[in-house]
UniProtKB/TrEMBL annotation:
Lineage: Bacteria, Bacillati, Actinomycetota, Actinomycetes, Streptosporangiales
UniProt keyword annotation of Membrane present: no
Signal peptide extent: none
This protein's UniProt keywords: DNA-binding
Residues within the DNA-binding region(s): 46-65
Domain HTH tetR-type: 23-83
Pfam families linked: TetR_N
Organism of this sequence: Actinomadura vinacea
Keyword Nucleotide-binding part of the UniProt annotation: no
Designated name of the protein: TetR/AcrR family transcriptional regulator
């Protein structure tokens, strides 16, 4: 771990090492899910429909992904891993930059993370909402959330030593839940820039006292 944030954490959400036949089933299931999403939208993404399109038993789909939320998160995996690579080891201010150089401040990294997560949510908000609303704890059960929380908590405690980094990380992540984000964007008509400005205002509360 560097002085400017989290380094060396494993990327969350990647497929496990598996047998060739299991990997082939996973590939077929994800390809079928992506095709259904492209042709018929989120509403068509049921476990039964995906199994039928992939040519596998529905029990295979449930064993691999547990529920629809798990399946949707797997479909989103490539975009998510790109995002994770950006904040864990990418260029500053989102990433840590050169560990031997000055690098971005923790506050700059938190701001860049929140803005990048808003962009990531904007790009795939409908799918994210489908996954997060599948069960009450779906958003928090996925490995992505734990990684986000750990990353922010580390940076927050560097900004304000002694602060409750976990609680404050949750507070900063809460506005980026997909259902609230979509409500603000599509019902209230908020622009993405307005949402980012609001996130900056929340972040002001974490700045150390002058």
């Amino acid at each position: 771990m560097s002085g400017n944030g989290v380094r060396g954490l494993p990327l969350a959400g990647g497929p496990p090492v598996e047998r060739a036949d299991a990997a082939e089933n996973r590939r077929k299931i994800l390809a079928a899910a992506a095709e259904l999403l492209a042709s018929r939208g989120v509403e068509a993404l049921s476990m039964d429909e995906v199994a039928r399109a992939a040519g596998v038993g529905v029990g295979t789909v449930y064993r691999r992904f547990r529920d629809r939320a798990g399946l949707v998160y797997a479909v989103l995996d490539d975009r998510e891993r790109e995002f994770q690579e950006g904040f864990l080891q990418g260029p500053p201010p989102l990433g840590p930059g050169d560990p031997d150089g000055a690098g971005p401040t923790p506050l700059e990294r938190v701001r860049a993370f929140l803005h990048a997560l808003a962009d990531r949510t904007e790009a795939q908000s409908e799918l994210l909402e489908t996954a997060e609303m599948d069960s009450a704890d779906a958003r928090f059960r996925d490995g992505w959330y734990a990684l986000y929380q750990s990353h922010l908590a580390t940076l927050i405690t560097q900004i304000r030593p002694g602060a409750d980094g976990i609680y404050l990380a949750d507070a900063l992540l809460a506005p980026l839940a997909a259902n609230l984000f979509r409500y603000q964007r599509h019902t209230q008509g908020m622009s993405l820039e307005r949402i980012k400005t609001g996130l900056d205002a929340l972040l002001d509360g974490i700045r150390p006292a002058a």
